[in-house]
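User: quick one, fold this
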Amino acid sequence: MHHFDYKNGVLHAEGVSLATIAEEVGTPVYVYSRATLTRHFQVLDDALSGIDHLICFAMKANSSLGVVATLAKLGAGADVVSEGEARLAMAAGIPPEKIVFSGVGKTEAELAFALQAGIGQLNLESYEELLELSHIAQRLGKTARIALRVNPDVDAGTHAKITTGLKENKFGIDWTQAHTVYKQAMKLQGIEVVGVAVHIGSQLTNLKPFEDAFLRLRDLVVMLKADNIPIQKIDLGGGLGVPYEPGVNETPPLPVDYAKVVKACVGDLGCKLVFEPGRLLVGNAGILLSRISRLKEGATRSFVVVDAGMNDLMRPALYDAYHDIQPVKEPKPGGARRAVDVVGPICESSDVFATQRLLPMLTKDELIAFGTAGAYGASMSSEYNGRPLVPEVMVDGDRFAVTRPRPSYEAMIAQQKLPDWMG
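Assistant:
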């Protein structure tokens, strides 16, 4: 469920007209609904009731300060993959003890930062990383609370570029080797083993891969406890999908059904369960608002050229991802439609949002909204082609605020400087 609906013929975010936001902030612009964020968090939290758990929002999905602060006030922790994300999480009000630091390529500086900041859990992805962390912890006189990320060799059944739990993927320690690495971890100074972690991929629409991975993790936890290795937490990652194209793609399971699998697989092990949802919480809570720059008739195609580009929303170019497209002005029921390619201004042939999409008859300067854009939208944006970073807006009822302003061209240029010999 989301809170983007037509009211009096105009698409709104909660009680705010998207036309009003476009007029005051300009386009392109990301718009987030606080009510949707709140609802999605509460639905998942309610589904997990009855078990000791912590929901750590996956910051890579959306690092907007307003979004993270909204979830922090609801009790969320954070799953981060860089020092920058950790600092953003803490700036948004998430205490370091509720932060899980994941990632296969954490640098020595980032590991040291995590120890000095008091990060609650470091998910380690190799024996080499474990040894390095032990040396850093001893040097700093700190103790690192760690979990090993286990690669269960389970096919998530999702896009190859967002699958992370197969043995050929770069992530995690092979599940058949994890027991040995845990024994080695118990002997290292500066290391406190607290948990075990798994994450098999993103945008899963089937519960069977979760079940397969969780059962392998269960077997490992039972073996570790039998060897007196103190597993207190089981980090089950994230990955539950959201509907991008209702009625066409497979409908993702509901959080309540996901929770039933969790409880059946690992709910009786006496451990605190940690979850790292990203897309599930923010995907449908955001849209990308854009304006039509012109209509172009090609030799074989009709093009709708918009002012948003692949630098603002990379998913279609990167994953061939689908995003619903709605005119901000409500179309008349039964009105004419035609197949068009919706494209951006970037000098790349991959700057295409939709190919031969059947849409209402659109006009120049009309506003459109790309749906389900709250996850991996603004967080993956760039200044490619010399375009300012896309701004972000948070809506709460009938009010809205700009949480990241659009930088001026002067501000963009000021981030760079000439070499001394060219000054």
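User: anything notable?
Assistant: Residues 147 and 190 are 14 Å apart (CA to CA).
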